[in-house]
Amino acid sequence: MLAQLDTLRAEALIALGAATDETAIETVRVNYLGKKGSVTALSSGMRDVPVDQKKEAGAKLNEVREAISSAIETKQAAIQHAKDTASVAGIDVTLPGRPGNGVGALHPLTQVRDLAVRTLRRMGFTLAEGPEIETEWHCFDALNTPADHPARNEKDTFYLADGRLLRTHTSSVQIRTMETVKDLPVRIIAPGAAYRRDEIDATHLSVFNQLECLYVDKGVSLADLKGTLEVFFREIFGPQTAVRFRPHFFPFTEPSFEIDVKLEAKGKEARWIEIAGCGMVDPAVFTAVNGSRGDVLFDPEEITGFAFGMGLDRLAMILHSITDIRHLIDNDVRFLAQF
Ligand code: PHE
Question: Which CATH superfamily is domain 108-336 in?
Fold first, then answer.
């Protein structure tokens, strides 16, 4: 029996050596190790082996079975490897890959807007919106801007035939919000488009983007305005950013300020850059809002508020040293791929 096993092993290994595909290997397995295979047949002869030889015969049987199985596995792996190699024949796997369409990114304006909105939301402001086609009331009258104000001139503003206009600023959302809220405080961020009949050049477009902020409640002070803006601009431009308030005039705030931030451009001396307008809500605005609401939720004797507004395009330009605002709307991938 021992000799027979040696012979079977030798035969099996020769057959495997000659096998060139999966089917041939399977045939070898069936012939030797299968239910009716010759090795299997020998193992059923074990019961006739004399007791003193059983141990040796059993060990031999296992040894031969394992030798054949492992030779089958080795052969299978070799055939698989040959197949894999053949399937990539002629392909130089060391060549650099072909660039695809590339991974996209958010537009730089969207990025700045999201950063600004996120920062203000952390301070308790919520998003608000209003229409881009606006009434004169919401854009001007309620914002204490008299009929003879230059912004109301047809040369500066796009009017529709019905007397409505494309909003010249997002401050109209202040009015829209205060007219509809149920209660105080009012604490909103309103990003959105604004329109002016400007000559288009490196710093002007007829459509641009603003971000408006309004906080109204009992006891809102100028200190709240300063603190909010300082935190805000440090978040946008970095923790060392200095912020300066310069007295100014807006019809709907009193007092009013322009805000400058001090920014260092690489290799240049730090400069003050005008970045936003702001002020304490003029009591005349509250009176106008109460008029359309028909109540006195915004009692000018009791309630105060601050507002600020800024151009998001300008913010993006300053942040990324963009020298021409038109890049923001050209949709040239060579420009956009930088963000
Ligand atoms: N609406 C003003 C502008 O467009 C900015 C501003 C907003 C000023 C809020 C004061 C308060 O220039």
Answer: Bira Bifunctional Protein; Domain 2 (3.30.930.10)
